[in-house]
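Late entry, iron/sulfur cluster complex.
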Amino acid sequence: MPNAQKPLTIIAPKTAVKGGKQNWNTRVFPTWCAGCGDWGVWAALKQALTNLGKKPEEVVIVYGVGCSGNMTSFVNTYAFHGLHGRALPVAEGIKLANNKLTVIVVAGDGDGYGIGVGHFIHALRRNFDLTYIVHNNAVYGLTTGQTSPTALKGFKSKSTPEGVIEEPVNPLALAIATGATFVSRSQAADIPHLAQTIEAGIKHNGFSLVDVFQHCATFNKVNTVQWYREHAYKLEKPFGPQEKTKAMGKALETGRYPVGVLYHEERPAYDDEVTELKKGPLVERDISNVDITPLFDEFR
Ligand code: SF4
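Prediction complete; structure with ligand written out below:
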């Protein structure tokens, strides 16, 4: 069963190299249910950071609320665990303060595509240089099994005992329609593919969506590992800006779901276009001679 969490925590990393390789583990062992897809996302994320040669102090991960958010304590980087649905604006603020950092956001489908969907749309159109990993298991796991915004029509849970009536949110189609520059999907049960997808997302300069088919072993008995195996197929290569309608067509497919990088476009990231950031990260500025008294006076 999922454990309760303590949001609004900030964690600083410890440098630890094991066997010549960066050790991304903390002393806290994950509390996820046995068989949960979160284990696969955890492994793939650490693999991607290793492959990219990142150091813990170069990385900040902002977590939403949900079972995925429990990862705050399990990855050895700077971490921020905020309010439900509010991970993206926090990550945008971090990127503006220090655009040298690799900023990753980890959320669930309830957090990211439900309560936080407004922030999702605006982060996409701004094209902030963030990697957004969404554990999409079509159910609210932490609160013990209610229907989420990506649950398929007919899905029965304690909040929809007669089955879901409405259509699910389609995150890939939403992302393409809102001006996304990197849209992808992978599976928690395919760790090498997921690690490769996260790595490509982090390398991308701009907002990268990595939607993850993540099985919830406890509260979703429909979208199991076997179900994802039978309903997903791998894409060979991403569509580019000239083929946006084709990418949208793939995103809208039902019954069989594309996995891989679906859409890729090179466009300046938001943080590339902010004039003030062209002089370097804000946190590196010398502000010892700056008089902020006039600013305070304005609010007296
Ligand atoms: Fe357990 Fe489901 Fe939460 Fe995973 S997502 S920890 S299986 S309740």
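The mean pLDDT is 93. Will revisit in the morning.
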